[in-house]
Amino acid sequence: MKNSFTRWAGVTALSLSTFAAYAADNDRNYPNDRIGNNPDNRSSMNRLDRFAFPAKANELLGREITNLQDEKVGKVEEIGLDLESGRVVQVIVSSGGIFGIGGKSWAVPPGAFSYDPGSKSLRLDVDKERYKSVSAFDMSKWDDSVETNHLSEVYRSYGQRPYFNETPAARVGKPATMRLGKVDKASKVVGLSVMNRQNEKLGSVDNLIIDLPAGRIVHVVLSSGGFLGMGDALSAVPPSAFTYSASQDSLVLDATKDKLAGAPNFKSAEWPNFNDPAYAGKVYRSYNIDPYFSTDADNTARNVRDRQESRLTPIDQGTSEADVETTRSIRKEILAVKNLSVNARNVKVITLNGRVTLRGPVGDELERKTIADIANRIAREGNVDNQLEATKLPYKDRE
Questions:
Q1: Which of 276, 293, 310 is the last residue of a domain?
Q2: Is residue 302 part of a domain?
């Protein structure tokens, strides 16, 4: 085999990826991050309407992961971050041995994860065959693992396109994508000293707010302690406001002490509601950075309606018991079919108000029909929008 900020805390994504993965499925949806000499442009990204699962980095590291069959598959061992672009690059999953096979660590693109609010767990679609086929990850070879070519292979193995440039030639004639920056471990970023351009110490990184399924770093939480006379105050700062210092031993924030003191801050014992898009937007704009997420709560209903009238994404999965059960049943039957291609096993199944949407590439017309038949039987014919695309995948690339 080769291959939130959300007001809706109940959003569930039982399909195999999130809106971020959907965007990567289409060249026209590649984020147009105009990364250049103008620092204000570094975060001009395609907007997400809402977030999937914002959480503190120290709560994600070590978090248990289950698969779609509620089997434990491991824990989050490490998270690879491209801080300056605000992106989660890869997640290292560690297992102590599952499916009767010895334990190992392996790399997974963030978009392969979903969050189930019911069980409050991270989910990753991995079964015995996939587990056996993935390459083991060697933490001691971190630098090798974050090379563009290696990361691209990891993304493709989960049926995803990288958000970053793979090679200059590969993107000729296509919309610009983001350059891959310095990829560091989340555990290393937390604790880094933060200086300003006047070489004054502003504090250190206390934590990170990460929306893992969406592949985004939402905020860097900066602890200034007594440096600014703010006591135990913490500040939420957009990740793209930072750059690495030349020595790469610290971060540089283009802000004076007065500016930082005047920006949104909070007490260490009174964290703000990071599900509030208005608060998040205030944070970003205080640093003259355009938010990559929608901050207009009044547009929520319109955004959902627009997506219903066009192409649904996995984050649109309905939260009703009936919708959740329909998606779960379809996914279960798809995975039970033998000899399906990897792409077919990874198709997106989205149920909203009883209507099922199927999206993604499959090996051929037979696979397309097989999956559609399953969905029609469970959701009843007439309630299924089959957007699956037959790619005529050679049999040698099938499981």
A1: 293
A2: no
The domain that holds 114 is classified in CATH as: 2.30.30.240
pLDDT tens-digit readout, 55-84: 999 999 999 999 888 888 999 999 999 999
Domain that holds residue 95: 19-171
The position carrying tokens 């969050």 is 115
- pTM confidence score: 0.65
Domain boundary among 171, 199, 223: 171
Q: How many domains, the chain?
A: 3
**Is residue 10 domain-resident?**
no
Q: Give every strand in the sheet of 384-390, ordered side by side.
A: 348-352, 355-362, 384-390
- 8 A C-beta contact, residue 66 and residue 122: yes
Q: What CA–CA distance (Å, rounded) separates 362 from 355? A: 21
Angstrom distance (rounded) from CA 311 to CA 307? 6
| 121 plus 202 within the same structural domain | no
**Residues 6 or more apart whose Cβ sits within 8 Å of residue 121:** 64, 65, 66, 115
Q: With the CA atoms of 344, 375, 328 and 218 taken in that order, what torsion angle do they form, in degrees rounded to the nearest 10?
A: 60
Per residue in 328-378, pLDDT (tens digit) is 899 999 989 988 888 888 888 999 888 999 988 888 899 999 999 999 999
pLDDT at residue 316, as a whole number: 65
231 CB neighbour count, 10 Å cutoff: 10
Confidence of residue 296 (pLDDT cuts 50, 70, 90): low
From 128, 96, 123, select the one nearest 112 (Cα to Cα).
123
Please indicate, yes or no, whether residues 288 and 337 belong to a single structural domain of this protein: no
DSSP 256-318: -HHHHHHS-EEETTS---TT-HHHHHHHHHHTT---SB---GGGHHHHHHHHHHS---GGG--
